[in-house]
Amino acid sequence: MKKILLGFALFLGAFQTQAQENNLQLKGTVVDTVAQYVYLQKFHNKMFTTIDSVKVKDGNFSFKTKVKTPELYGLSVNTESSPLYIFLEKDPITVKLSPKKYYTASVVEGSASQNLFETYKKTKDVEISKFITENPKSIVSAYVLYRNWSYRLTPEQITQNIALLDKSLQNITYVKELKELVTVLDGLAVGKKAPDFTAKDPDGKPVRLYDNLKGYTLVDFWASWCGPCRKENPNIVAAYKEFHDKGFNIVAISLDKKKENWVKGIKDDNLTWTHVSDLLFWNSAVAKLYGVRAIPGNYLIDPKGVIVAKNLHGEELQSTLKNLLENKI
Q1: Neighbours of 216 (CB within 10 A)
Q2: How far apart are CA 71 and CA 137, in angstroms?
């Protein structure tokens, strides 16, 4: 596998990585669907926004849209579902687009970045520093560090991996946002003061965090669409029932997009504490304030607003609260 990745590194180093605007040479066929349109979507902050669409004619489609390349985009026949992740370049690219099994049956030809991305996804036990070192000029390295590793690494580790990227990548969006994230996370270390915020509850009323610091408060990030969050909720409910009367409080921030889904999730999971959301998905202002790149995620704050722990799940949440509220440690 190392030889394969090194081979891609040499190939990818042959072209300029810095994104530039080019007219796409993107064409393909649509299979396994009767969809009439193909949508081109721009990736940003774990979300895709439609920037162009073309009508399918006799099973074929073609885009000549002017976009920045190389960068990650999405191709879809349905804007309500996750698209095919595709790294577009200035060179001609051909796609067989199949929506079956989340586009896993699709085939992309002509994109060296896409080839490396597919190799990365198939590689088990990836060492991100090694991957970047072997592919320092590839935008794929910057993307996977931003998208797949930013929530697994410490601020120091993120900075170390950024330094491994070629200088041509240092000013692209993914890297700029990683650098901003490091600054945010540095201010959210255990022992530092949690940032205050005000957001609206399901009734539209503003709720201020610091008005709700009743004992130890869990600032909990979740969403009704998040499977791992819903799986973790029973544990949080149990902790709340056991420790609320002893000084445990929760302020939950949802990354939902639709109010009805948010409210239903609260009711279905019996989440009987304070809830707020701006319904902006990954553009949530509070999530950005707290450097949240994955959910479920949380911060435990003491009565004075000082962060005492982060990302407590399962038994660790229960044991931490027991130590703090029963043993008075």
Answers
A1: 21
A2: 13
Question: Alpha helix locations (H) across the chain?
Answer: 2-12, 112-122, 128-134, 139-144, 155-164, 173-186, 227-243, 259-268, 285-289, 315-325
- Taking the C-alpha atoms of residue 39 and residue 47, their distance in angstroms, rounded to an integer, is 14
User: What residues form DSSP beta bridges with 42?
Assistant: 49, 73
Q: Token pair for residue 25?
A: 């040479």
Which residues in 48-58 are b (16+ Cβ under 10 Å) and which e?
A: beeebbbebee
Please name which of 267, 196, 273 lies closest in space to residue 239, comparing C-alpha atoms. Answer: 273
* SS3 (DSSP) at 198: strand
pLDDT in tens, 235-261: 999 999 999 999 999 999 999 999 999
CA 306 to chain centre: 26
Q: Which residue has the higher pLDDT, 22 or 290?
A: 290
Q: What does the pLDDT average to over 209-234?
A: 97
Helix count (H) and strand count (E) of the chain?
Answer: 10, 17
Residue 117: Cβ-neighbour burial (10 angstroms; 0-12, 13-18, 19+): buried
The HSE-up count of residue 131 (CA atoms within 13 Å, CB side) is: 22
Measured CA to CA, the distance from residue 195 to residue 261 in angstroms comes to 27
What's the token pair of residue 143? 């993307």
Question: What dihedral do alpha carbons 181, 182, 186, 189 form, nearest 10°?
Answer: 70
Which residues make beta-bridge pairs with 300?
218, 309
Nearest to 201 by CA among 88, 277, 288, 112: 277
